[in-house]
Structure formats: C-alpha cells, structure tokens
Amino acid sequence: MSEHPKIFTPEYYQRLFDVEERHWWSIGMRAIAARMLDQSLPGRRADFWILDAGCGTGLTRAWLEAYARPERIIGIDLAWLALEFCRRRSLAGLAQASITGLPFVSDIFDLATCIDVLQHLPQDGSEKAALDELHRVLRPGGRLLLRTNAQRWLRRSGNEHAEDHYHRYTLSEIIQKVTQAGFVVERATHANRLMSMADEVKRFLKPNPPRNGADHGLAIQLPKSKLWNALLSYVMAAEAAYLAKPGRRFNKGHTLICLARKP
C-alpha cells in the first residue's frame, strides 16, 4: 500500500466525541445496525469475541457491549489520538493497528465491525487488504457489519465538494467487494434515505463552497433545537423499524450498511 489512510485532526475527533452520542444521525445508525444484528446474533453471548476495526472515539466499541462482555471486545485504530478519546470513555482492550494488517491470529472473532473506515482507505488495494484481513480473523460463521459512504444520486457541475476526498460506493460495488473477499452477504441496504434526499436537493439547487478536506468532520453539528434533533431521531427510528424485516432495503441514501457472514 502506497500510503496510510487519512487521519483526521484533533478538532475532528473532539467534535465526534462531543456530539455523536446525541446526534440524530448517529442514534439512527446505531438503531439500524441493532435491528440488523439482532436478527443474526440475538442476545448477549458470554463466549463472543468482537473486533471493532477502526474504533474512532469509541462510541461503537461501547455500544457493542450489548452483544459481548466488555473484556471480549477489542478496538483498534490507526490514530493514537482516537484511542485517547476511547480511554476517556473508560474503555479497555484497545490497540493501535492498521485494518490492512490486523495483529491477530486467524479465526478468532465472532463479529467484526468496520464503521466508516473503508471509504478513507487509499484506492491502491488497501480496501481489498482490509476486507481480506477481516475475513481472516473471523471464525467460520462469524459476521461482518460494514458501514460506508454511498454515491450521491443528484449531480451537477461544480457540486462536488473538496471534502469528498474519500471514496463513495454504490450498493452493488460494496456487495461485489465483500463477496470477493469470501463473505456471503446477508443484508445490504442504503440508509438515511429521507434526510439524504433533502440534502441532495439542497446541494443541487445551491452548491456549498468547498471546505478543507481534512477537517470535513467539523461540519457535524447538533441541531440547535433539541426538539428537531428528537424528531430526526424518530425519523431514523422509523427507518430502522422498516429495515428490521428481512429482505427490505432502501435504494437511496448517503449511507451503505452491509451485514455479511464468513462461510
């Protein structure tokens, strides 16, 4: 691999740490993930080992305690600063490591999560290496929960932002890449449909000026109104309820979620 994935600024991690636990989008994504996981992995398993690959500031790592004992959940991240924020959440089982070369023996984990990591890897074979590594460390029958960015569906000249240095995937592209790594895809869908539609129309009608790509996460803001944040959380909860039934999926949305199994 020619370069490491882009590492965000201290301000980026601080903003995530401050708002992601309460932000409607983050709440909604956890609700959707829970609905999908609960179908395949119902209940908390005392014998489960879980890997959070690219744990960021630790919110997903903490949330995963609903599925396994805390001492059986490992979080890794390439950014030492991210792990420092994890420690502020009093989380243990942390390691600085790259997803493209996981420091674990094969066939050890029952569940691996890869949340908003894949799109930031260099397009030089790193994403394939990451998926191959996740497949390697999972036990047969183990699951991978993958979340990444989706392509926009409204486009116009000058409407692509400088912060979009990361890759945006199509649903079929993700399914193909996960399948090529040896997984069997159980569920794959777009998510955040309603607010993505509103954002697409806004960007199409009035493109925003470009921002610094390294700091694009600073745009993450809690709505000024707690009522509005609660309302949007309710909208996302409705999405999660719709997606709870097997076979359902959205064909639009800025987020892609894939649940796959190692045969």
Describe the structure in your own words.
The protein is of the alpha/beta class and 263 residues long. The protein is built from eight helices and seven strands; from the N terminus they run ααβαβαββαβαβααβ. Strands 3-2-1-4-5-7-6 form a seven-stranded mixed beta sheet, with helices on both faces. Helix 4 (80-88) links the parallel strand 2 (73-77) and strand 3 (94-96). Mean pLDDT is 86; it is low at 157-163 and 210-215.
Brief overview:
Helices cover 36% and strands 17% of the residues. The protein has 263 residues and is an alpha/beta fold.
Features:
seven-stranded mixed β-sheet, Rossmann fold, 36% helix, single chain, 263 residues, 17% strand, 7 strands, alpha/beta, globular
User: Total domains, how many?
Assistant: 1
Q: Mean of residue pLDDT?
A: 86
Order of helical and strand elements: HHEHEHEEHEHEHHE
What is the share of helical residues?
25-40%
CATH class: Alpha Beta
Beta strands, count: 7
Under the CATH scheme, which architecture would be assigned? Answer: 3-Layer(aba) Sandwich
Shape: globular
At the fourth level of CATH, the homologous superfamily is Vaccinia Virus protein VP39
Q: Mind describing the biggest β-sheet?
A: 7 strands, mixed
- Compute the separation of the termini in Å: 28 Å
Task: Provide a count of the helices.
Answer: 8
**Cα gyration radius (Å):** 18 Å
Strand content: 15-25%
CATH topology: Rossmann fold
Q: Structural class, from secondary structure content?
A: alpha/beta
